Inverse folding.
């Protein structure tokens, strides 16, 4: 049974944004620039490191990091994402080909916690370890941090197969020219010789340790890790074992989304209340079902994208009851401590659960 009650609040909603241009970066990657109309500028204001979620068809939702800077949005009304082709990908491969200036896509306002608070009065050492398209959010972080904090520095370790596959090579070169003494970029190439033996080969644990010991200034205050799960997990473990004070992580792909085994519990095991867009909807669900799936059955407009615990688009706060997450690559410990969960990964632990998507 489903019922609806009015409560206050609002949630991120889809907005049609016109494509301003699509530009090729490498053989496998493009940038898509959207024109944000003045009335949506506040809604699409973002922090460097965040991502946009694009809806290409009702069931095709993808999250892509923003590579441009908040200052660009303020000045030009443009916001840009980096898209690397996934062979056979519904949007990255097929959808991108059909995009032209003027095409309109449905887009959710920026989301994500892969960021930091920048302060012009602060002097920090930032570091990033990225591979492939993992550079996308870090490009925005580097440009924004160095522009905002005139005394801070940034060291970037960037792994790629070959020079031709380096995304944003021109933008990185321009940043290096602008901040020659405050930006250090180390390109590591796995399938062709890099600038030195240390920069030639896979960005694995041994090479990371070597570069941290020999090429990276000591005392990095904040690290940003973005790329495939194996690199991010290895780098995080290594940095934490060396006492790194702050490590932010972002995964683009966390491996295949585990297909939850079909629920075997009864459909009315758990009473679920969903708060969304100022309304409460009530339904029931099996004790071994996923909260998002049950919630979508009564509120089809719910935000979600990856269903794999990576993008945080399905984030909500547990108001009553308890849930357990199968995996979480998106929420920071502070978020989890405050009661936020990824509903696509959440299984109820109590017979009554209320989740608030407006919180
Ligand atoms: S939909 Fe992406 S984390 Fe749940």
């Amino acid at each position: 049974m489903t019922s609806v009650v009015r409560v206050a609040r609002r949630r991120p909603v889809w907005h049609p944004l016109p494509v301003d241009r699509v530009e090729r970066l490498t053989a496998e990657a493009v940038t898509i620039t959207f024109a944000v109309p003045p009335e949506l500028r506040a809604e699409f204001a973002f922090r460097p490191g965040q991502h946009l979620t694009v809806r290409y068809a009702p069931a095709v939702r993808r999250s892509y990091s923003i590579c441009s800077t908040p200052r660009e949005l303020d000045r030009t009304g443009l916001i840009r994402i980096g898209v690397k082709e996934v062979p056979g990908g519904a949007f990255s491969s097929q959808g991108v080909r059909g995009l032209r200036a003027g095409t309109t896509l449905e887009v959710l306002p920026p989301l994500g916690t892969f960021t930091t608070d920048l302060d012009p009065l602060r002097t920090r050492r930032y570091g990033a370890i990225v591979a492939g398209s993992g550079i996308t959010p870090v490009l925005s972080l580097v440009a924004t941090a160095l522009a905002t904090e005139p005394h801070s520095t940034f060291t970037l370790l960037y792994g790629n197969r070959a020079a031709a596959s380096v995304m944003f090579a021109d933008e990185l070169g321009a940043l290096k020219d602008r901040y020659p003494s405050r930006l250090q970029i180390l390109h590591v190439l796995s399938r062709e010789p890099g600038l030195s033996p240390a920069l030639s080969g896979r960005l694995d644990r041994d090479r990371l340790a070597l570069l941290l010991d020999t090429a990276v200034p000591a005392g990095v205050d904040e690290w940003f890790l973005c790329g495939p799960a194996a690199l991010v997990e290895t780098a995080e473990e290594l940095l934490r074992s060396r006492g790194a004070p702050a490590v932010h992580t972002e995964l683009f792909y966390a491996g295949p989304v585990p297909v939850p085994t079909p629920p075997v519990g009864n459909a009315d095991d758990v009473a679920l209340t969903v708060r969304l867009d100022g309304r409460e909807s009530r339904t029931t669900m099996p004790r071994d079902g996923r909260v998002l799936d049950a919630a979508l059955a009564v509120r089809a407009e719910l935000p979600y994208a990856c269903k794999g615990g990576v993008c945080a688009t399905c984030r909500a706060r547990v108001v009553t009851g308890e849930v357990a997450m199968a995996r979480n690559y998106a929420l920071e410990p502070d978020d989890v401590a405050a009661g936020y969960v990824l509903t696509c990964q959440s299984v109820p632990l109590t017979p009554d659960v209320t989740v608030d998507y407006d919180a």
